[in-house]
Amino acid sequence: MDHEEKKNTNYINLNNQKVYFNIVGNGEPIVFLHGGPGSQHQFFLPHVLPLSKNYKLIFYDQTGCGQSETEKSGQYSMSMEVEVLELLRKKLCLTKMNLFGESWGSMLALLYATTYPERVNGLFLTAAIGVTAQGYKSFQKELMKRLSLKDKIRLFIFSFKKVNKDNERVLEVLDPYYVFSKESLQKKKVFKMNKVVKKKIIDDIVKNYDLTDKLFKLDQIPDMVAQGSHDILDPSKIKQLLIDYIPHAILVEINNAGHWTVVEKPQEIISIAKDFFSSSNC
Question: Which residues form the signal peptide (predicted)?
């Protein structure tokens, strides 16, 4: 059966907010946490769908993102998003989950796992950022180093405008820097970024993201990080920002890939993730 035929999409009410989710396949659940902040679950599709042959894949748009309802008060935070994920787990009657976090989603996965360690089977992180705000700051610093002067000027102009079209132009400027090969850009779906969510969550990250005192809670949870060889935070940097803090975590380098490992090297990511989740669920 084609993977798309097994798809079920729906809305679920979590804390009086409509959250859009999508379930594909059967088996042990893997919950996918998209990046951004402010992006949506479509980033993962169709690239990870072959995993649905062995697992139940659960995708959702975080609060205010994609097709999910915006937060009524206009406030967004890391802790709120952790609780949304916990409510999703309860509503879907999942005892434990495997988490697949990409970019900001890798941080959300770590936040959730250090809050509810008993609910996590395994953590698979890619395009990882780190365990403190220093990871995000380093990411921004390295990204700015890569930008041409022309693109820095364009980014400055577009970032301060409030029109949706200019939001899309920001992505046009940045996207080529997230890949190893610009041909990979054709494989990424076009979607909108919620600028309000992005700003609120990033402000929270810069001020409050520090898991160093909670990482002991991950001692019994298998962790794997699959980082692109040419990611903005390459494997050597992510070793300092994440792996050195979690000694049992396994670091795998994805050759000839940038920040979008899922888009550029889907078969390799699928193979590694499949092996990892099958062993972490033994």
Answer: none
Distance of alpha carbon 205 from alpha carbon 27, whole angstroms: 34
Q: What are the CA-CA distances from residue 264 to residues 95, 105, 187, 230, 235 (Å)? A: 33, 18, 8, 11, 16
Whether the predicted pLDDT of 82 surpasses 80: yes
**Please, which pLDDT band fits residue 57 given cuts at 50, 70 and 90?**
very high
Contact predicate 79/49, CB 8 Å: no
Distance CA 160, CA 97 (A): 39
Eight-class DSSP state of 148: -
Instruction: Tell me whether strands 17-24 and 250-254 are parallel, antiparallel or unpaired.
Output: unpaired
Cβ atoms of residues 42 and 69 within 8 Å: no
**Cα 132 from chain centroid (whole Å):** 16
98-142: pLDDT as tens digits: 999 999 999 999 999 999 999 999 999 999 999 999 999 999 999
User: pLDDT-derived band of residue 161, with 50, 70 and 90 as boundaries?
Assistant: low
Q: Going edge to edge, which strands form the sheet with 17-24?
A: 7-14, 17-24, 55-60, 28-33, 97-102, 120-126, 223-228, 250-254
Question: What are the CA-CA distances from residue 134 to residues 90, 100, 137, 212, 237 (Å)?
Answer: 32, 22, 5, 12, 11
